[in-house]
Amino acid sequence: MSSKSASIHKSERSRAAPPPGGIVDCEDLLSALPHPILVVANDQSIVFANAAAESFFSMSATVLTRSRISDIVAFGCPLLGLVEQVQATGATVNEYAIEVATPRFSGAKLVDVYGGPLPEEPRNMFLMFQQRSMAQMIERQLTHRAAARSVSGMAGVLAHEIKNPLSGIRGAAQLLEPALTDEDRALTQLICSETDRIRNLVDRMEVFGDERPITKDAVNIHDVLNHVRRIAEHGFGRNVRYVEDYDPSLPNVLGNRDKLVQVFLNLLKNAAEAIGEKNDGRIIMQTAFRPGVRLSLPGSDTRVSLPLMIQIEDNGCGIPEHLKPHLFDPFVTTKSSGSGLGLALVAKIIADHGGIIECESEPKRTVFRVLLPMQRTRPAAVPTTRET
């Protein structure tokens, strides 16, 4: 898209004959998108703005296309750095939680920004904004922290105020058992089994109160995924077909191998349970390098690169719509016998590794996506794609 074509008014285009074959003009397509779209030239002047961008920036397209990108956002806005990065590298870049402030509205709007060069006009680049509410962005980036903090204090109280009395109750039941009839002895055994169940639940919750830094080392994520797949194949997921789509050049993760095994074993188990007894059950395990993904650290201007993507996809029944906003909260589960702590613990472990976890779900397709920082050393190559 050239600057000249971008400046053509809509009224003039409407009088032109439709393109042969009914092909939609690129500018018409951008105009129809519900998200704000800007096209920026090499000199950072704006050459196109769709209707959604006019609404977002509270400026007309005429005013926007007479401005440079630095004229419409506050000084030091991370958006300017993103524009410079795309223009310097020619690569597509995604940034989460950018605060965009302009002279036309008070405060700042929190957005995800996607930027990249236009294929037909590499001198120009596009910017697409997806506005997020603060609650949505906190859920996306810091869900794991909320999950941990919401039960960490409770875990400490439960450990002290419940586990000790439980031991006394269980001991008393065991002392009474020899003097009781067979019928009454069954009741003391019930007391013992229930106290054991409660104690195990409290033990699981205590993990959330552990704020000690984890021991990290260079970990080959493909070794972790191969290990959990073997466990699944010989256990809970023996009837599922596994598809591995790995990037063999992926660098190592800086993390704790045992805890990463716990994370992906949990995700694989959830996927297998969602598939159930389906004859065509399939789990796709994918890794990829996403160099443009960065995350804002809470309370800091620092943005951490999270280029390592690990994805677990299943073709099960999907996640109910009403549970999606609370998926990583403690005690949220669709399982009749589940405690609802599995995904909350997964989110905490990923947070301890400096990463984030996301979920997309619809019937017959649920994806859990983990984004992690990397260790600079290179792992040994592994098979790129394989089915089992």
Name a few traits of the molecule.
Beta-Lactamase, disordered N terminus, Heat Shock Protein 90, 15 strands, 40% helix, 13 helices, alpha+beta, six-stranded mixed beta sheet, single chain, seven-stranded mixed beta sheet, 388 residues
Low-confidence stretches: 1-24
What is the number of helices? 13
CATH topology of the largest domain: Heat Shock Protein 90
Text of the CATH class of the largest domain: Alpha Beta
Name given to the CATH homologous superfamily of the largest domain: Histidine kinase-like ATPase, C-terminal domain
The structural class is alpha+beta
Helix content: 25-40%
Could you state the order of secondary-structure elements as H and E?
Answer: HHHEEHHHHEEEHHHEHEEHEEEEHEEE
CATH architecture of the largest domain: 2-Layer Sandwich
Overall number of structural domains: 3
For the largest beta-sheet, the strand count, sense and barrel status come to:
7 strands, mixed
Order of adjacent strands in the largest pleated sheet: 2-1-5-4-3-10-11
Radius of gyration: 27 Å
